[in-house]
Design a protein that fits this description.
Elements (H helix, E strand, L loop, with lengths): L1 E3 L6 E7 L5 E12 L3 E9 L7 E10 L2 E9 L3 H9 L2 H15 L1
Antiparallel strand pairs: 1-2, 2-3, 3-4, 4-5, 5-6
Length: 104
């Protein structure tokens, strides 16, 4: 499931499932949006308890071959980072970006 209100103050909720009854979700809010160049939001991973706020800044910049997307996540502590990485999220994110790139 994916819910998002792309406006400052708008809510975010994403849910993931492993197809075997396991999964996790995140909630958050948009702080700033600049069309075609910047998204800043806060998110909390629910693993099942919510983590502290993770601040995410995503920038889109034209380069010689297309658009460069840079995402910087600022986590509150090493424990939160370890819990997030334990979900395998980096593999899912990479697979999602590979699919997105193929569509463009």
């Amino acid at each position: 499931m994916c819910q998002r209100e792309a406006r400052p103050g708008g809510k975010i909720r994403y849910e993931w499932s492993d197809g075997k009854g396991g999964g996790f979700h995140l909630t958050g809010e948009y702080l700033e949006l600049v069309p075609s160049s910047l998204i800043i939001h806060v998110e909390r991973m629910h693993l099942p308890d919510p983590t502290l706020d993770n601040h995410v800044e995503t920038r889109f910049e034209q380069d010689a071959t297309g658009t460069l997307m840079t995402m910087r996540m600022t986590l509150p502590d090493a424990e939160t980072r370890a819990a997030m990485l334990a979900t395998g999220m980096e593999h899912g994110m990479e697979a999602s970006y590979v699919r997105l790139e193929a569509m463009i």
